Every structure is written in C-alpha cells, then in structure tokens.
User: What shape does this take?
Amino acid sequence: MPRLLLCALLALTIPARAADVRVRVDPSARPAAPGNENLTTFPTIQNALDHHPFATPNPDGTPGRVFIEIVPGTYHERVIVTQNHNNITLIGLGKTPDEVIITNSLNAKQAGGTFFTETVGINAPGFEADNITFENAAGNTGQAVAVADRGDRSIFKHCRFLGHQDTLFADYGRQYYVDSYIEGGVDYIFGNAAAVFERDELHSNGPGFVTAQSRTAPDQPTGYVILSSKVTADLSAPPIDPNTPGAASTTSARRMIGLGRPWRAYSRVIYINTALPAEMNPVGWNNWGQPANESTAYYAESNSTGPGASPSTRVPWSHQLTPTEAKQYLPQTFLAGPAKGPDHWDPIAEAAKLP
Assistant: This one.
C-alpha cells in the first residue's frame, strides 16, 4: 500500500480530539493581513480576534477554546467578539489586572446612543477573561459603557471594570464575575442577564444606584445576585451637571448611593452576605418614579453587613431572606440553565480552570 495512502487511512481511524489554540497579543508584532493570516502573535486584540486559527471541535461537537494571551500594556482600541467566535479566553499576562488595560473614551452623545459606546462588546457564548482591566475613560459625561456582554456562559475573573454611568452592560445569558472590581457612579451594572457577582468590590465613585436590572417578565430567569462581596463608595467628586443624562438619579440619592432601581418593571436584584458602606441610603431601593414598579420588581437582601446594612429602614416592598431562602440564588443553582433541559453549567468549576 502506498505510504501516503496508509497515513491517510491511519488519520481517519484515530479518534479526533479537541485542539485548543493559543495566540499572543504584543504591540511589537506585525498585523495579520491577506497573505499572512497564519500568525500566532498579533499587535492588537482585535487583530487577534479577526485572524486567529479556530480550535478543533470536541468529539461531541462542542468547540475547543481559543486562548488570547495579552502582554502588559495599555491597548487603546475597541474590541468586538462576534457571534461566530465562541469560547474565547482573554488572559492578561501581567502580575495584576491593572497591567493589561483595554480602554476607549466614548459617551452616548458622541456615539449616538448608549449601546454604541462600549469599549469591549461580547456577542458569543463561552467568553472568559482573566487578569484584565476594561475601561471607558469618558468620565462623568453621561452613559459610557466599558463592557457590553450579550453572550451566554461568560466568566470574568480577577478583572477590573472602570467607568462612571453604565459601566457594565450585563444584558443576556448567564454571567459570572468573581474576585473582580467594578467601578461607576450611576446605574453602573445594568441590563437583563442572569449574573452572579461573587467576592467582588462594587465601588461607587459618585452618588447614584449600583444596579439597574431590566427583567421584563416574571417568568424570566434573569437577575443580579451580589454574593459575598462588598460595596464601597467615594462621594468626594464634584456634583454631576444637572443637564447630564441620568442626573435625576443622583439628585434623588442626596449624595448617597442606592442598591438599585428598576430599569424595567420586573427588575430583580439580590444581595447575599455583602458588606454595605455608610454612604448607603437607608431605604436601599428606589422605584424610579413609578409606584407600579413596587408590585413587580423583586429586591432582596440576606445577611447584609457593615454600616449600610439596615433592614428596618428598607422600603417596605423589598425582602429580607433567610439563608435557606437565599440558597436558590447561589451560582451553581441560579446559573445552571433553564428548568427544561438545563446544561448544568458550573461557573465555579469553570472559573477554577483559569490562572
């Protein structure tokens, strides 16, 4: 039998195994372009996303993973993970997340709307990031998104999110943020994802509300869970210009911060075992000027601690949960997937695989 034919037959009989792909981002590298796409080092993150080799699928048809390792530096670029780029992992190679910064400066007035401002947009499932800072540097100038995540099964570990109004648009699917830092002033975590924030610091750099979750129906399995985390605040910044979009929320907060307000009627947010600062408004929650929201939004706490923990002064339409009642919002349960045919996604186990 000819040798080439024999090799071909052997290749067909060997079980296929997934082959992950690893590429690097280094500003000193030359860019990929037609004729030199087969590179393993790229000068920008977007260039790597546009031209990386695709991983080989697993035998069950699920894709392998593409690891994009980013050398320390500040990357002034907008990064878009498109729908056909599943299972992307961005890894910052610095010692801390502030050594790899992805930054841009674009607010809603400049971009023509909030949903065109993001520094990083994620539109595919299975996205992961570790040891990276995501920043929108527009400052206190209105809506300006650092990350817009519309992908299912996303994980962010050891990451920082920097902005002011609308820093993190956690809007679709299941998302898990662990050991991370999120900073903003007005509604700085917003959208309609099912998201758990575990062991994170949520830092308010101005008066306003931490969350503006937007569940639109009572049967949607979405909502935000802030778990074993801490909320901190620095309200020493100058007051916001009253003509800036969102200024009304800071006025109602009276130089305080609030746990959340309903961007949509069935907004759902739960704080569990989380420390709250003295700057917390004692009533905790806000109906966004719509009394009808009080009968549809679901806002709850369980074992809040710190000087801002004040169950007796919270709005009467919020809830205080027992530890048993709070168990349904732990990540392995809350993020497991739909009741009919859950995929049993375990974000804690997946996050443990990251560096």
